[in-house]
Structures
1.
Amino acid sequence: MVLGAIVLGKLTEAIDERIDSPVGARHFLIDDPATAAVVASTIATATLAFVAVVFATTLVAIQLAASQYSPRAVRIFIRSRVTRVTLGIFLATFVFGVTTLVGSRANLASADQYAPQVSITVLVVLTIATVLGFVAYLHGVVRLMRVQYLLANVAEETHGSILDCFPPESAYVDVDPPRADDQPRDLRYAAAAGVMSAIDEPGLVELCRTRDCWFELTVGVGEYLAHGTLIGRVHGGDLDHTQVVGHLLVRGERTFLQDPGFGIRQLVDIAIRALSPAVNDPTTAVQALDRLNDLLAVAGTRPRPSGLRVDATHVPRVQLRVVDFDQLLTLALTEIIRYGADAPQVVRRLGALLDELEAQLAEASRAVVIDHRELLAQAVAAALPAPFSAVASTSDRRGLG
């Protein structure tokens, strides 16, 4: 937007020079370059101060979100399109105002002066857009600060990740698992350390096909790769470490791409932070459990991912380390049970969540739900005062209403 403002400023200046409107003709906005220079200077100065206030407000909002919800939720504020667009409009208005100011002063010093009608008109339009953008920015920041919107945003991205990582039954090919070598070749990580954010699965499959082998990946998306970490074993052929690492996206943090556990991790962080003695907000924890209930139901009613990837001829080429429903359920509930066992509202919502999952899931997936029900009962018995036991024993999707 800043670059566009520079180009637009030069373009409007060229148009004004070509039109060559006479000075002092009582135009709608301006009638001389001196007035145009004053207007452009005033708007540029005010907009620069405006930008400073908006940036400071944004930083405060990000700090509050990191401390109140979770540091991992800050990415939602940074990626907000409203924030990016409005800041871009503010900066573009400032740059265009400076460009118009320079052009107006050059025009003022020229022997053949003209009224810069187009430049001032565009500058006024950008100023109005700045005011409207500021209103939209305030609305967007207030909405981002609402925990319900934050939970919905995280849950929406996690839902898409679950659908990708837990494909339907029709997506699976009936093939036998590949035969493991007696002495497979280990590959250890030797590049820059970081978190494995994603895997180029088609590229890795094609690499194994060309080298006539299959690769067993021993690390999963979301895990930290340090120097010397065992990343996989090569069976039936040979692969180069550089070739394999070229198909792994290693960055500084986790993402929602191919990593449903990252979204659940954020929801759990928000819930347990709300349950801390410093915050003491069990209602927020119940709202997080509402979102977790939906996500776990989607993952639990789909086939368990095999992690096996085949080439075009249905020959197994890659065995991924994937997360299954049992792991997601453990991630979602263990810490909330630990820190919410003394809150009747949270206990009642946890009971309703487990009831719903047990009714929806197949027989093979109910064992882990039963284990967490027993864990909840033991935690409640150890943490909740006896007078509240009767209230907490009733399952309720609203907690305590």
2.
Amino acid sequence: MNVYIESYGCTRRKLEVSKFHKYFSLNGYAVVRKPEKADIILITTCAFKYDEEEASLKAIENFSKYDAKIIVYGCLPDIAPTKYHSRYDYINISPKNINDIDSHLDGITYRFSEIDDANLIDNNDNYSSLPNALRKFSDNFELSVPFFVKSCRYVKNKYLTNQKMYYLSTSRGCLGNCSYCAVRFAVGPIKSKAIDIVTNEFSRGIESGYKDFSVLGDDVGAYGQDRGSNLCELIAALQVEIDKRSGTASGASLRLHIEEISPRWITKYEKELTCLFASKNIRSILCPLQSGSTRILELMNRGDDMDRLLSILNEIQRRNPRIELNTQIIVGFPSETESNFEDSLTQLCKTAFNSVVLFPYDDKENTQAHEIGPKVPERVIQDRIRKAQVFLRQKGIKSALCCNET
């Protein structure tokens, strides 16, 4: 049996695609490069934002013309159920049910759950095929400097940059209840890996010569909450592995990058994380603020104590001056006023952030935020994003409009 895999989505989904490759190979399936040669087409979808949602839907439509069994994997059916189910009736599997792939295939000897998680993203995988990439380029084409800059960055990141990051997937699922988020519908509750499994993966990466390690999960700060453990214990265990190599060239140059840790976990484990993040081996933290307005944070169901959080981040930076602090801001959340928006910019100045990703608010069905009004007009959102870009540039802070930009 031949399988063709088309992938859209975040780093976590791309790592799963790498695992799918191994899974199919072990079970005697051949992964092919052309969909017309496939008996099965697996499409890994994304619906994080409107553009990704539309790209995933177009991909499914494009592959519908082939005489093959189609399996839709990823977040799309759970994030945009009306759009998806009104158009398609294919087998669909959510990230929270990823192991169900076994029941949709014949001749499975090695179950998906029995295969180790991938630590590397294979740049040769079909992360949006050339025809789809050209179609997307054509659909979004505009004669402007930002468009061409973004296109050049995409080509550089996809084709010209050697992979240097080794990924440590700590868990899947989320414990958050953010009112704007639909991803949690797709990923389900937290399911953490045992600490020794993560540290063994870390050791293998070190032995393979990798220096940069991304510690990630759908809700990385919630790691261990389902196992009677926590992120602090995991970071401490990774530091022990580093200390074993102290005095060696490899030990001194190992770098850990903590991806998307919610403020709630920074404040919950303030003392422990402040000490752990003082290590020179902790090189970056991505902590999404999402807003600097207390009112908007409450509507988001985040309720973060922003002053306390920024105080903790400043202390971490004081103890570890080499650390990079990165964050994200949602612009145009329902009912956000100009004053609320200005609050976000003001808060960004209270900590020396290295970069800020600006997300225009994207309304998702079945979320609490979907029912909140009034909605901020798109033109106002875009105007605020431009203001934020100018503001951040003046402050010497890098900004981006998506996670892959710099």
